[in-house]
Amino acid sequence: MKNTFVENYIRDHGLTVLQCDEEKPWWAYYVLEETPEYDKKILWLKPHALLSLQYHGTPSHPGHREEGEWLTDMALVLGKEDMSTLTLDQIYQKIPDDLKVIPLKKWEKFDTPAGFLHAYFNPFDHDIYLLETRISRIPETADDREKNIIRIYDTTMRGGTPDWPEWLRDKIAELR
After folding, report:
1. Which residues contact 101 (CB under 8 A, 6 or more apart)?
2. What distances in angstroms separate CA 161 from CA 94, 141, 165, one per listed residue?
3. How far apart are the C-alpha atoms of 154 and 174, rounded to whole Å?
4. Kind plus residue range of the DSSP H or E element containing 21
5. pTM score > 0.90 for this model?
6. How far apart are CA 163 and CA 155, in angstroms?
7. Mean pLDDT, consecutive 10-residue segments, the chain of 176 residues?
8. Cα(34)–Cα(36) distance, rounded to whole angstroms?
9. Are 110 and 116 in contact (CB under 8 A)?
10. pLDDT of amino acid 176
11. If DSSP codes are grouped into helix, strand and coil, which group holds residue 114?
């Protein structure tokens, strides 16, 4: 394991890592639990990392919500309403007016409802950590939860998703 913070947290809390990926462009994740109802992981974000702007859910699938417990200070970009029934064109028209930046303190907890636009980001010059739990409305695998993520902007442009536009990055920077 490349990260002593995560290694110590896992040891101190008697947890086990089921799988990890320490080669992500934004840094790493460590899966701690996977059940049909939820999965839990630690996210490690490098300085100034901006994860995808996304939501979970469609008219044919209820999506999942996310609970986060911040292990360090960090920030969250959050939308104001459920987007799961809108078209992509309608969603793009609502951005950026629908987004707000929420600074979060260490050990603070936050719940992101299914369907709400959100993105985690690190506004600092040091690494940050988040304990994320994705909770399904229906029993499903962690892979199914992952497949149900609708990305609007993504720095790694997975699946052809556009990168974050500079004007939106600037707006987020102004809101910090």
Report:
1. 75, 76, 77, 78, 172, 175, 176
2. 17, 23, 12
3. 20
4. strand 19-21
5. yes
6. 5
7. 94 97 94 97 95 93 94 93 93 90 93 95 94 96 94 93 92 72
8. 7
9. no
10. 59
11. coil
> At a CB cut-off of 8 Å and minimum separation 6, what does 88 contact?
152
Distances in whole angstroms, Cα of residue 135 to Cα of each of 4, 6, 31, 70, 107: 28, 22, 14, 17, 19
Query: For position 175, what pLDDT does the model report?
Result: 59
- β-partners of residue 64 are 136
CB 128 within 8 A of CB 73: yes
Alpha helical stretches, state H, 13-129:
88-94
Cα–Cα distance for residue pair 166/155, rounded to 1 Å: 11
Residues in the chain: 176
C-alpha to C-alpha distance for 127 and 142, rounded to whole angstroms: 26
The CA-to-CA distance between both ends of the chain, in Å, stands at: 32
d(CA 159, CA 149): 11
Q: Rounded distance, CA 91 to CA 106, Å?
A: 31
Amino acid in position 29: Y
